Give the backbone structure.
Amino acid sequence: MAESLLSSRWAVAIDPARRDGRILKTRTEPAAAAETSPLPAGLEPAVGRALAAQGIESLYGHQTEVWNASREGSVIVTTATASGKSLAFNLPVLDSIARAPKARALYLYPTKALAQDQARSLARLGAPNLRPAIYDGDTPKDERPAVRRSSNLVLTNPDMLHVGILPHHRSWGDFLQNLEWVVIDEAHTYRGVFGSNVANVIRRLRRLARAYGAEPKFILASATIANPGELAGRLVGDEFALVDRDTAPRAKREINVWNPPLINPAIGARRSSLAEAADLLAELVTHDVRTICFLKSRRGIELIRKFAAENLERRGRPELAEKIAPYRAGYTRRSGAASRRTMVEGRLLGVVATNALELGIDIGELDAAICVTFPGTVAGLRQMWGRAGRRRPGLAVYIAGQDGLDQYFCRHPEEFLERPVEAAILDHQSPEIAAQHLVAAAYELPLTPEDSEWFGPDLPEATESLLRRGELRQAGGGLVPRKPGFVASSVSLRSSSAENVAVVDGSSGEVIGTVEFGRAFTTIHPGAVYMHFGNSYEVEQLDLAGAQAVVRPFDDEWYTRPKQETDIFIDKVLAKKTVAGVDLHFGEISVTDHVIAYQRVLTANQEAIDLVDLDLPEQEFRTKGLWYTVPEEMTPELPLNGLLGALHATEHSQIAVLPLIAMCDRWDIGGLSTNIHAQTGRPTIFIYDGHPGGIGIARRGYDCFDRLVGDAFGLVNECPCGEGCPSCVQSPKCGNLNEPLFKAGAIGLMEAMQGALRREAPAPPQ
């Protein structure tokens, strides 16, 4: 397809939005030529011949830099999507294996699908002596001994390394003894609770490798982030060389910022971003523009696919509806593999995906990438946009949602497009996270004081606590788990729950999906509407003991959202200060959530139908948070409900802008506001990490509280609505269903805090 023809096809699709003002800003990223260099002189000749057979006779400049740096030690490469990072880390590994077939390499990918994709690429390369194999939960048990015995490049994921390799290291003794390389691809995904867990898994791997006499070098590959060197060091616990100069060729890309139109200016309501995305997807598919559409919500991608199919059927093009497929986590292995296969084979014109496809899985050449609502980070957004127009001009579109952060960006589109990528946050020493891995490490080899090299100087205190709790016991010269059994299996890397709940279609008995145990009460409670491949199901029964939810097909036009009550107990104050006129604290807290009901909401107009009571148990977890008490002079003469509404609206706005400071999204953050808290005795606002143990988000908010207050005040004060809307103080994740909220009270409170900040600022030098 010629460049001009392709551009004209997508221009037809988006021109109406440009004319009516929905497209707020357009920017064109120019094409760039490649910088190349010859294959390294020291490369094993047989590897060079294998590359030449694939048409590779030179390297990009950054690939050569990785080769040179890897001769000396560990290295991280951070360049754009489709810039050749895979060849950059493959080359040193393939060279070692070609020279010494007994050398071993371990490749870690965040998803099974990505490992499978990379295994196919390695097989096509045909490098000498290479015997690659995938080792994950899908590997047949009767094939696993052969992988351990003879494969010299094993592709796996952190979860399998955690539960399937490290605890069984005696079966992997030869592999660990000869382990020369560990490659960690998509390193930017290892942040938050997942990254904090994986950092501990990597330390356990390095500890075992040394016990077998190996000191492997690491190569990390990442999308562009603000702190790649720091992330690599925190993740692995070693020093890294950094390669961040992107020398790959780049096609021209057009970027558009798109805001759905107002449908009720009085309340600030806009047309659904899902409906806008579905219409655009249908339009692009009609014009033969191969498109991927990203949205974080699993339910949301199912709805976009459904709406787009209905649009195409109205156009009289039902055959095109069959060429759009959803893709998300939680599908069964068979259905997920089938979706990926149809993508790779080019039989689809449109894919609607969660960030499960944000990563570098090869699904063919794409022309357009749509990101629906802000995905949580600029780095993630650019990774998604980078899926389109790799070798020919591409179209990238950001369709804003109604929530505060999206609308903040729409009011400042130039700042949004110029916004730098964020720093990735992880805390491998988070006590709750680290403690679980210390017990797992003790199962693998007895813990001794020398293990402080891997687990930090606080190891003696941490192990003493585990001894008191009965998790560890003394045995000979070290510490081992007190309880029998398989320790790692009870530690989930990706969530606070190690278990999943199966979703079963009661009409057929088929398992159609899974949901993390920790999300079950809010997503598959009795009466909830569950989406799967564009079809709706109603949950008839949630059996926690049996770890399954039974659903039935459902065709009504409404969806559900849970209502929950939250209580917080302050366990320990770790820091405090007076700032913005309030007493601000940071510390350890216990959070109790109780889903008490669900609301049914019409899909067409978002109108609530009713509220249905639920009888579910409470869930409790410990985390870290910030909280502050509000003095009376900041909320003068507010009645009780007005005070509650002002505090609640302030809490929502500050949670909405916290992702501008920390690399997270609002779904990683919890909050509570109350007119009087039992322990503080004052009106109090809490903002906390939504993951057990905490991962550094609330601490970032505590440290940058003045900026947090200023950004939140701007968000609410700039919004043109009267009473408060989804663009400023309403939250899509509010457990109280956004009641009560008092926008004017929040503006008054934060205006007073802003005034206090100005008074607290040091006087300028004379």
